[in-house]
C-alpha cells in the first residue's frame, strides 16, 4: 500500500513540473519496444471479410467499443446517433453492412456501434487534423499522408493496421490503412497505382450524409483504374461531410486535391510536381503555409519528403502514423508505434504481388 501511495505521489509531482508529463512519457516509450502495425488479408465475400477482420482484431474491436466509440455521443445521445448511423448504412450498398455483421458475429460488438465507428465524422461527432504531401520525381510519384488523430483513447499507437484486399468481381486489389472495426479507409492504393488520402476540413451534419466518406474512398479505389474515373467520382460525391481528399495516379503521374467545405460543391486544386493539403479549404487560388514550406524546401528524394513530414512546422503532435506510397517501387513506407510517428523509423512493406 505504501509503495502504491509513493508511486501515485511521484506521478502527481511529475505532472506538476512544467513539461514533466511529456518527459515522463518520452522516457517510458524509450524503454518499451515500438509496436509494429498489424497486417490483415481480406478475402472472400463481404461477410467472410468481416469475419476475418473480427477474428484477427477481436480484442482491439472490443476495447475500442468500450473506451472510444461509446464516448462519441454524450449521455442519452448515444442511442440517437446509433440510429442515425443505422439510417446512413441503410442508404448504401448492403455489402458494407454485411462486412460489419461478419465482425459482429465474431466479436460480439453490436453492429450499430461498429456502424457509428465508421460514420462518426459524417455525423459531426469529432474533429481531426492531417497533412498530405504528394511529390513527383521523374517517373516516380510519392503519395504521402500524416494521419493526425486523438489517438483512440490512448491506444492508437498499438492499433495501426494494414489491410490487404485480394479483390473480388468488380473490385481491384487494394492496400489500405485503418483501425480495427473500420470497413472504410484513411489511406488506400489500388493495384493500378490510384491512391487516396483523407483530411477533415469541417464538421459533418447528422442528417445530410448519404455515404460515409471513409467507405466512399474505398469504393472509389476498388472500382477506378485511372485518375480520371476517380476524379469524376470525387467531383460528384453525394452530399455529406466536408472533406479534403488527395488523389494521385502513379502510372499517369497525375495528382490533385479536392476540397468540399459546403454541402455539395467540390473544388479541385491541380499540380504537376508538388501538392500539399492541411485541414483548411484553400480554394483554387490561395496557397497554404504547408505548400509554401514544401515549395521552398523543393524535395528531390524520399528522404527529403520524409524530412518535410517530420518538419515541426508541418508535423502535429498527435500524428499516429505517417505513410508514403511508392507505387513505382511497389513499396509502402510506414512510420507508426510512437507519437508523433513521423519522427520515428519508416518500415518498408511490399504493396502488391504482380506475378
Oligomer: single chain
Biggest β-sheet description: 8 strands, mixed
Q: State the order of secondary-structure elements, H for helix, E for strand.
A: HHEHHHHHEEEEEEHHEEEEHHEEE
- How big a fraction of the residues is strand? 15-25%
Shape: globular
Major sheet strand order:
1-4-5-6-7-8-9-10
Can you describe what's shown?
By secondary structure, the protein is of the alpha+beta class. It contains eleven helices and 14 strands. Strand 6 (187-190) and strand 7 (194-199) form a beta hairpin. Helix 3 (46-56) packs parallel to helix 6 and helix 5 (77-90) packs across helix 7. It is globular, with a radius of gyration of 20 Å. The mean pLDDT is 92.
Q: Would you kindly provide a brief summary of this structure?
A:
The chain is an alpha+beta fold.
Key descriptive features of the protein:
6-stranded antiparallel beta sheet; 34% helix; 14 strands; 8-stranded mixed beta sheet; 11 helices; 355 residues; alpha+beta; globular
